Amino acid sequence: MNSKYRPPIVAVMGHIDHGKTTLLDRIRNAHVAQKESGGITQHISSYQTEVKLKSGKSGLITFIDTPGHAAFCAMRTRGANLTDLVVLVISATDGVMLQTKECIAQIKKANLPVIIALTKYDLETRQPEMVKGQLVEMDLTPEEYGGQVAIVPVSAKTGAGIDELLELILLNAEIMELKDESESPLEAVVVESKLDTARGPVAAVIVKKGILKLGDQIFTENISGKVKALFDSSGKSIKEAGPSTPVEILGFEKVPYVGAMITNNPLETPHDASLPITNIPTNPDLPHLNVVIKADTEGTLEALKNSLSDDVNLIYTGVGPVNDNDVIAAKTSHAELFAFNVPVSKTIKNLADNEKVPIFESKIIYEIIENIQAQVLKMLDPTIEDTIVGEGTIIAEFKIEKVRIAGIKITKGEMTKGDPVHLMREGKIIKNTQIEGIRQGKDIVEKIKVGHDCGMTFRPYIDFKINDVIIAYKNSK
Ligand code: GDP
Fold this sequence. Notes:
- By secondary structure, the protein is α+β, with helices and mostly antiparallel strands.
- It folds into four domains: 9-176, 3-Layer(aba) Sandwich (Rossmann fold); 187-262, Elongation Factor Tu (Ef-tu), domain 3 (Beta Barrel); 289-380, Rossmann fold, CATH 3.40.50.10050; 385-473, Elongation Factor Tu (Ef-tu), domain 3.
- The chain is 22% helix and 37% strand.
- The protein starts with 8 loop residues before the first strand and ends with a strand.
- The model is unreliable at 30-44, 67-80 and 271-285 (pLDDT under 50).
- Guanosine-5'-diphosphate (GDP) is lined by residues 14, 16-22, 33, 40-41, 68, 119-120, 122-123, 155-157.
């Protein structure tokens, strides 16, 4: 590659099980997939790989390997300005799924170019035309239909299509003319960080501009450090790293935040963007589940936080083993403690037992998320302490200036603006919110009674569907 240009930084995303890990494995010829708990990739990791194509073309590509679970989609927003291009993995047999849609929303928000890898193409059950139709619906019209989006059928199993995918990435990089700014002052972004008991704070970063060197003074937000050791993505000790290179740094005083920018000059670093440890609920009248979360890395913590619903109130979150402070914080705020992939010692377990603080531990991220959401549903059960004042069914949906409005038939009682409501789907409460406004025909009204139809909006926003049931209640607590 011409040294005037730097390698492209490519984020790979997609719905869980659509084949992202297998595809990346095939590209780097490693076998990470088998090592992971529960079979899903749990950490962001990034690596650079040199590709040599049959066409004679060769070049370096930096991949940000992001795990398949929806939780991790959110993490991308912070690192989005690091990414030059996205490869969106979609299984040719399953097509666009929930997490695919979430990823597409993020890609559009960040205005990033995208290549679709249509994976598992070797399977007889592939339905490429169906997938392309879905993409058209989502405003990602394939090139062959006159749109802009390149779709590459691939099979990580047979290797078919992978050369074409890599070639297209390199071609896109050439067109983008990604300038190598190694002469500029250092800018690097943290993509992963953790506290290692033996080595202290460890940060995986990707250099954007300048050269990161051994011995450098480094600054990020409120944290400083000196680069004591640098490792490339194969774990080899190196002395310096230029633009687009992923490296691991030892030498920070404290664990830096994922998404934080690293510079050589404290004045150029955005000052204290420290994340709030307490999340004030959007509406204090609605019930919230208080939780304390400890996780193994900033990356997973961030992902966990981003995947929880609005009904969850984060009292305190942190990285590292569960300690007595966490238990006390949970006790004083009547919170439950969740430990993701971190040790909980016997002493701490005894303390939690004595203080009656429930601790839920897991090494699998979606188990933690599911458990928290299950507790939320329990908390939202209206039959215990609520008096139901009205019920209605969503029979239509409208959009006025991008606002989704639910067309509701009131089947019981009445509903008033400001009432807390449960959203019920297939007999289960899936969310609670509040009535923001009611419209009857063209009129804005305060109240609506049984037998009438109306348009309703909610705050906080809920992703309602036709046939969902809305239950308005008064909290009798
Ligand atoms: P991820 O969750 O998106 O990282 O998905 P994985 O890479 O873990 O793949 C999920 C499953 O699909 C695994 O059982 C893979 O063996 C299988 N798989 C992935 N790619 C292919 C492919 O190209 N062809 C076939 N037949 N199976 C695949």
